[in-house]
Records
---
Amino acid sequence: MTTAGATAREHAEDYFRGWNAGDAEALRGLFDPQVSFRGPMGVADGPDECVAGLLGMREGFLEEVVVEKLLVDGDEVVTWFEMRTRLDGVDPFPVVNRMHVGPDGIDRIRVVFDPRPLLG
């Protein structure tokens, strides 16, 4: 995937599609070289760490993410989605993701959710 000419909405849609598919190259192609991720369960800097974190969750426990609402304001995208896991006794739970898309792709991702279901 290329970032040239893509809108913030397209970046966000491709991000969730790539995450659900476990497609490392598609995800990597969306990220700015200086991308940073901050969330309740971790920190990642750079495309390789961000891809590793997303695919690590996918391989470890994540069944899928289901986007319920995607709101765009210029180069900012806020997404409300449901995280569905393969973990026994963990019901799907809501997550809010805020990303910024710069000229070289997604450069900032901030995630908020209650991590207690995953901490067992």
Note: Residues 54 and 83 are 12 Å apart (CA to CA).
---
Amino acid sequence: MTAFDELMAFQRETSALGQIAGRLGWDQETVMPRGAAPQRAEEMAAIEAVLHARRSDPRVAEWLDQAAPQDEVGKAQLREIRRAYDRAVKVPADLATAIARTTSAAQGTWAQAREDEDVSAFLPVLEEVVSLKRQEGEALAQGGDVYDAMVEDYEPYTTGAQIAAIFDEMRPRLVALRAAVLERPEPAALTGSFDELTQMRLTQKLAVAFGYDLNNGRVDKAVHPFSSGSGLDVRITTRTSETDPFNCFFSTIHEVGHAAYEQGIDRGYLLTPLGRGVSMGVHESQSRIYENQLGRSRAFTGWLFDQMKDAFGDFGIADADAFYATVNRVHNGYIRTEADEVQYNLHIMLRFDLERALMAGDLQVSELEAAWNDRFKADFGYAVDKPSNGCLQDVHWSVGLFGYFPTYSLGNVYAGCLYQALRGAVPELDAQLAEGDTTGATAWLREHVQQHGGLYAPREIIQRASGVEPGPEPLLDYLEQKFSGLYGL
């Protein structure tokens, strides 16, 4: 075997172990008994110790020096292995293990604190997580910006300052659009009771409609919807509410976007660095375009309206046009995952600024709840009513995902670019969506984005697919056009 062959064989084993660790995480958030949390923390720590040892194995450096890739794919594999290795060797093994152990335990603590509306029960373990992640960031940054080092895990080749500049460009138009919309009469909200088993049956139908392969996946329930895995085993979760089936349906479509990306990657990349989504921003471009530009479109909601009538009978919405307005209703709310398209990115900007301050040491964990509540009041104009609607609503910080939040808005920006290109490439898109047929859109996305996995850098894959340099203007134009039409602006 050549050095390249030996390196790739080693990498596939490491990736397989990483998939096992991911499956433990999926189990913890879906079916694991609550009392198993302390043991699961030790299990996660043990497997992280093995993974860290492999990722920082000196033989990787030797193979990298000796490997001679024969083509573009081989060069990209080495690029990603070297990037991961350079990061892994900077983080002490005991720190990597401690982070895995602490975040596994913190997830359970967060879930209970959220249920109990008790911020004080969560803050001590969050303090530990923030301290450990700061140490990791400092090790990775080596004198540079700690938050930039965190972002690199989720959106390679992007800095906090670059993200802040994009957000600064977006905010004025978003705020102006929101102000104009909120002055107009609000469409009717969905009311009534919707059987949760029926929701889950319809959500399976939606998952299949958007191309999710249930032979290599499954749909379960969790407190916080997520997608897990890659290659031949890609699982998603959703959640149900008896009074809000949209939460279930659009969470499912969102997570199917993630899962379809992973399922759509060239199988030749299986269990290699190229065999997963290249970044969370590109991942979010898929989940957001599935959920919003496709799933909340006038055409598709017309089909969904008929599906809901078949499933639930008369549910109080007169017709497909009224249903489209209800699905896209701009309204006050606290929860990021339930936010309308106009306001969603403002929720992300709040989290971005707070977590950046936490990593810089400018904001202490003990001050987080007050800082969140003050910022929310300033941005949205009304006060947070309870912790589960405030700083306890998201799982991300409990499991150490600092630097992840801004990728949601980067995904929206990327989705805006992709949708502009998609509409030009598939002129019959609306007619297809009106029949519940997403294949024109999903096939285009698979061909131009998903199949490539990690072959190209994040911004490069979006530029290749869309034909434009990624920026927020297509997204903002789409939002203004859509909501001006909905609200008669």
Note: The first strand starts at residue 219 and ends at 221.
---
Amino acid sequence: MSVLRWPTRNLLLSALLLCTAAVGAGTEPYDRQGWYGEGSATSDDVQRVPVPPGHGAPDSVLVLEGGRVFDGTGAPARPATVVVEGKTITAILAPGESDWPASAQRIDASGLTVLPGLIDLHTHLSYVRQFGLPAPLSAESVADGTLRGLERMHQYLLSGITSVRDLASHGEVPFVLKRWQASGRIAGPRVFPAGQLITGRGGHGTEGFALRTYPGHAQAPVWEASGPDEWRDAVRAQFKRGADVIKLGSHYSQAEITAAVDEAHALGLPVTVDAETQYIDMAIAAGVDVIEHPLPRSDAALRAMAREDIAAVPTLVPYQYIIRHSGGYYGSTSRRFTLTEDSILEMTRAMKRAGIRIGVGTDLIVDWSDYLPTAYIDELENLVRAGFTEAGALQAATRVSADILGMGDRLGTLEVGKLADILLVAGEPDRKLRDLARVHTVIVNGRLLVADGRLHSEPLRPAQPPQLSP
């Protein structure tokens, strides 16, 4: 009796999993919108919790006059004026029209391009600022992690990024930052947290025992789980904290990832996965929504991703940094394959040729957020090298990334009724991506947060203390 060599056995396993993909693939997060009455308001996140009308809206009107509007819909840029009331875009006016309240704050957008705020689908807000074994205070302190997150939020915001998907941070940090940002108490992009990365024991992110990852550890960015029941429980733990997405990582069994995806979808949450080779086949069979990174996969997997509308977030930039710093990706049991700059770019080209939806994420770990906005622009230029036009890369950073985020009905384009996350830059970034570095104004949820390229501070408005009795 002959024994199959591993490459042949691997191809047969891939074929078997792809043949069974119809069982799990194609399922989607449960949509609860039909249970809300007409006109009911819900939170501006993926969980869509019922909220009072006008929840989180500032009491202001902004008018962006005389700019060149790139709305992200695919239409060419045009001269127009954008009117924002509260947190919502209420009008996009042709030149010469002036229909807005007299109390409006007018912003001169002459010579600027007005476009949707950029989205980064792969961030780690609380990640320590150095490799190796960091000091316990830096690695595990909630206070230290929160301040790192706030620092990075300012870096993203000043780079024109108005939404970030946090795909594993320490403990409660991303959820606290999300709440404070949503209430307007801190300046920063919207935060859509995953909570902890869920992986099998010894899986990605746990190599070398550098992290305390046992189940339930309050501050760990990774949750190790074994067996379908533990994977379901890990998903529920992230949902309980307030997750907008569930992130899974190899390794896992087919039963484990299927259980996790089923649980997340039942709760109404999308699932993204950090996976490679045969684990991508398992993720497709389980019905995941997004696959991160430009890691190896078969042509059959690419076709299945396109067929099942499983999106991709390539994150070429961090792999380029690692390869340039170290010569390769070494020493990881979850990266047992060869990675080169040519291989990751060719994988991105293959995903585009296959017709897979591609969004933008940078995965800037350690101190690499210091490279913003260059790092983000480099990622967009990577997409151009993979076959996108400049305007197409900009749409990937806005409209397509909003769809992948699960927020395409509210973010990603400048249209009446959408939330007012707006970027003003000098130049024409849809023709020259480097112009994105020339950030002038950033508005998030109708709030003016960056003006003239600097963080904008409102004047102190003291509350009236209770009067003393006579």
Note: Residues 118-405 form a domain with the TIM Barrel fold (CATH 3.20.20.140).
